[in-house]
Write a structure and sequence with these properties.
Layout: E1 2-3, H1 9-18, H2 24-33, H3 48-57, E2 58-59, E3 64-70, E4 77-82, E5 88-96, E6 99-104, E7 107-109, E8 124-127, H4 130-144, E9 150-153, H5 163-174, E10 186-190, H6 194-203, E11 208-212, H7 218-224, H8 233-247, E12 251-257, H9 265-275, E13 280-286, H10 300-312, E14 316-319, H11 333-343
Length: about 350
């Protein structure tokens, strides 16, 4: 049966035209779907005979909240979702002074192999559909009984390797008939897929691009972020400059602080010189340790020195506030723990 969730308005219009129905039915059904209504007979502004026909030939899918973990330290909540094929993904809800943010996954697992990350430990399983991405936001919104104001595609997976489904997802988030979230309140994180960055730039949407940089030189980044061997730093920065030109938006560079690996004064100076003059912001992230990885978090003093060096070069920089550490809120950690439980 055809799944109507995850279809754009245009796709729904084509579908209803194929049934001999007027195009405006698409807007009606679209609106109901993102109110969380899955039963066509409960969509009160469509004819009964159409509702019955839809029930026979199509459906509105739904992922299920499998487990929910609430932090005792802050208002962070982590969700494990069960997909229809039995796969597990995770999402995180965070509260900030500016609103409620949901961090969603774009793939089941990840193939990127970043040295410090839990997401990649179980390997890559498959891409998520647009419907499965949308449902993470919808399910959390319904569970909280409050509106989600910001969405970041920064959970498990590399979103730019699931490009078409990602773009449908972002457009549905933005639709006034669905979530009505401004593009300026959306962020997409990539470990540096250069063709994807250039393709996203061509969309000319004011989405925040976050790039997982984590090292100021190719030799170190090759070890931490293996995709650098295919798209080295200067090629990556060229794509980021193109993104800035096309969207008029600054790029955020994510930099995980790992003790004795990338947190030296020399690394800070190299990073500052690399990014000087670029419309960007650096987000320093204290490492969230992963049991299977032999890395330790930089000390507060080291992070502070690193931050001050960047500032002295005129680089905009912040240190990310740690959230949800007591519920394994780093990407992939909770799913990894669950899979280990199942194996045992």
């Amino acid at each position: 049966m055809m799944d109507l969730k995850g279809m754009t308005i245009e796709e729904l219009q084509d579908f209803f035209k194929s049934l001999g129905e007027p195009a405006y039915r698409a807007r009606q059904v679209f609106r109901w779907i993102y109110k969380g209504v899955e039963d066509f007979e409960k969509m009160t502004d469509i004819p009964k005979n159409l509702a019955l026909k839809l029930k026979e030939i199509c459906r509105v899918s739904r992922i299920k909240i499998y487990r929910k973990f609430e932090s005792k330290k802050d208002e962070t909540v982590k969700y494990l979702f069960l997909l229809e094929d039995g796969e597990i993904i995770e999402s995180v809800k965070m509260e900030h002074h500016y609103g409620t943010t949901v961090c969603v996954s774009s793939q089941v697992g990840c193939a990127m192999g970043c040295a410090f990350c839990a997401s990649t430990l179980g390997g890559f399983r498959r891409n998520l559909t647009c419907a499965e991405m949308v449902d993470q936001v919808l399910a959390i919104q319904e569970d909280l009984r409050k509106r989600v104001s910001h969405v970041v595609v920064m959970g498990s997976g590399e979103p730019l390797l699931n490009y078409d489904e990602l773009m449908k997802f972002l457009r549905i988030l933005n639709s006034e008939l669905a979530f009505n979230i401004s593009y300026r309140r959306m962020s997409v994180s990539t470990c540096g897929i250069v063709p994807g960055i250039r393709r996203l730039a061509e969309e000319e949407l004011p989405i925040t691009l976050s790039v997982s940089l984590h090292a100021p030189s190719d030799d170190l980044r090759d070890r931490l972020v293996p995709v650098n061997r295919r798209y080295p730093i200067m090629e990556l920065l060229d794509a980021c400059k193109y993104y800035i030109i096309k969207t008029k938006r600054r790029v955020t560079f994510e930099y995980i602080m790992i003790s004795g690996v990338n947190d030296s004064k020399e690394c800070a100076v190299k990073l500052a010189r690399l990014l000087k003059g670029l419309l960007c912001h650096v987000n320093l992230i204290p490492l969230n340790p992963v049991r299977e990885r032999d890395f330790r978090r930089s000390t507060f003093d080291k992070i502070e020195v690193f931050e001050e060096i960047l500032k002295s070069y005129g680089i905009s920089v912040t240190v990310r506030q740690e959230m949800g550490a007591d519920i394994e809120a780093a990407c992939g950690q909770l799913r990894r723990s669950f899979l280990n439980e199942v194996k045992k």
